[in-house]
Amino acid sequence: MDKDMNYVLGADFGSDSVRVVVIDAADGKMVGSAVSYYSRWREGKYCDPKKNQFRQHPLDYIESFESAVREAGTNCSSALKKIRAICLDTTGSTPALCDATGTPLALDPRFYDDPDAMFILWKDHTAVKEADDFNALSRSWGGPDYTKFTGGAYSSEWFWAKLLHIARKGGKVAEAAASAVEHCDWFPALLTGTTALDVIKRSRCAAGHKLGWHASWGGYPSEEFLHKLHPLLATIRRSLGNETYTSDVVAGTLTEEWVASLGVPKGTVVCVGAYDAHMGAVGGNVAPGVIVKSVGTSTVDIIIGPRPGEGEKEKQVAGIAGQVDGSVVPGYIGYEAGQSAYGDFYAWFRDLLVWPLHHMDSGIDAQQKEKIKKQVLATLEQAAEAIEPTENSPVALDWINGRRSPNADQTLKGALSGLTLGTDAPTIMRMLLESTAFGSRAILECFEEGGVKVDKIIAIGGVARKSKLGMQILADVTNRAIHVTSDDHTSAIGAAVFASVAAGLYPDVPSAQKALCAGIERTHQPNPKYTKVYDALYKHYLALGTFEEKLRRG
Q: Which of 173, 334, 387, 402 could form a disulfide with 410 if both were Cys (CB 3.0 to 4.6 A apart)?
């Protein structure tokens, strides 16, 4: 390894901000890092939570990335000048309609402020009807069932459903669309000047998990199938090609403009992108038998397993969010599941409690209100820790933003059960923490019922790092040790792992993981005093879920 040119840059585009790390690939030392928040998103622009509409402007991504790279390089300018490769991850599915040059339509002055021309964030659930229609057609049209490798259901959080929703609305945005692009595909193409529809390299991770791509039916869902949903989808399908790429593959090299803007060397390699949880799993040391839980606003649970042997069929795991060859670590099947709300459930409760503070004349200034808001969850969690769970404790259902896994259904709702006049705010806080842990247990059981053995659980992400009580409850509910990583930037580190492989600094992902990945900060062991109590409460959780499903389905 060239000691003078061994630095790599990883970028993690999350729901609220982009995180950037600069890492010495020789020893894994992080020499620089920064976080930059999306300005328009922070102002609440283009979003309407009551309609489940969450959109992000492409300029938020561009401006925040430039800002984060510059800030990360403030204390390591010499390392920034020796960067060998850049790799990035994004949330997903986060698609945008684009023109014939691969440019998102929101960058066209005609559509600058039109939410339908922007990137549709993963948690946008405006396309529930369209997901239902995709599922129904897939099971009845006489061709392949395109939900076969996505656990048996296509979600409103995913590519085709979201674009079908915009297409059905019609209007000038839909008329102007030549194709569509995932955030994780577009940004590497933007950095390398390869946005043209016939040259852009599409992520295997995104294509397999959210776009219905699978080798067994020759790539993406067929034009014939998609045309039955809407002609625009067939047009988009024609522009995608059939090739998809893992993230150890080079997408291109930085353009001169980006070299000048970022202050990195000419010829800097940029990798094919992927989704944040999948790269986070790599940064969290995913391996066969090791599931990595990315715990933040929502959760994504990732584990890998061997490919089928020659002459063997790929084992299908029912109820999960997808399984894709090479989506996590090249050479392995990547399995994904998750919960549509985790930290978002707690944030909802916090916002409920502080609503009067922001809507009445309290005499408290905006800065003080924000300070109070930031203290609410920590104060509630501290009080909730003192509450002893019993088999008669109230139970909550974590489907407040729909259910991603097991068995995706975004029409389902959250619930609180067993409340009395004695139920106070800390009790409800504990209910929410327990409910998200129950949802995690259901996912673990789904994996193991499908033949994917889980030997170890590693937790990454903001909630995992901050909420010690939440992780202890998770250990008690699942009766398994929960290992929490020692770094806040695990997804960006995973991106740096791929950058180091693409740059030729390591031969493969497992080798790079050993050198670059962070260790374990703390481990939560299950408390035998509570595991049996939670076994009983878990049955109440399952019964509440069954009631909710019957209620919604009549």
A: 402
Q: Residue 59 to residues 40, 63, 103, 106: CA-CA distances in angstroms?
A: 9, 6, 12, 9
Rounded CA-CA distance 246/82 in Å is: 25
Cα three-residue angle 264-202-280, rounded to 5 degrees:
65
Whether 488 shows a pLDDT value over 90: the answer reads no
Q: What is the crossing angle of helices 509-516 and 276-283, to 10°? A: 70
Q: Do 456 and 524 form a contact (C-beta atoms < 8 A)?
A: no
Q: Tokens at residue 345, please?
A: 């459930």
Q: Tokens 């925040």 label which residue?
A: 64
Q: With beta carbons less than 8 A apart as the criterion, state whether 252 and 194 touch.
A: yes
Length of the chain equals 554
pLDDT band of residue 1 (cuts 50, 70, 90) is very low
The separation between the first and the last C-alpha atoms of the chain, rounded to the nearest angstrom, is 64
- Separation CA 317–CA 302 (nearest Å): 13
Contact of 404 with 155, CB cutoff 8 Å: yes
- Structure tokens that stand for 387 in this block: 């509450």
Cα(357)–Cα(110) distance, integer angstroms: 39
Q: Helix H segments across 241-292?
A: 256-262, 276-283
Tokens found for residue 425: 């705010």
- Average pLDDT over the chain reads 94
Largest CA distance in the chain: 72
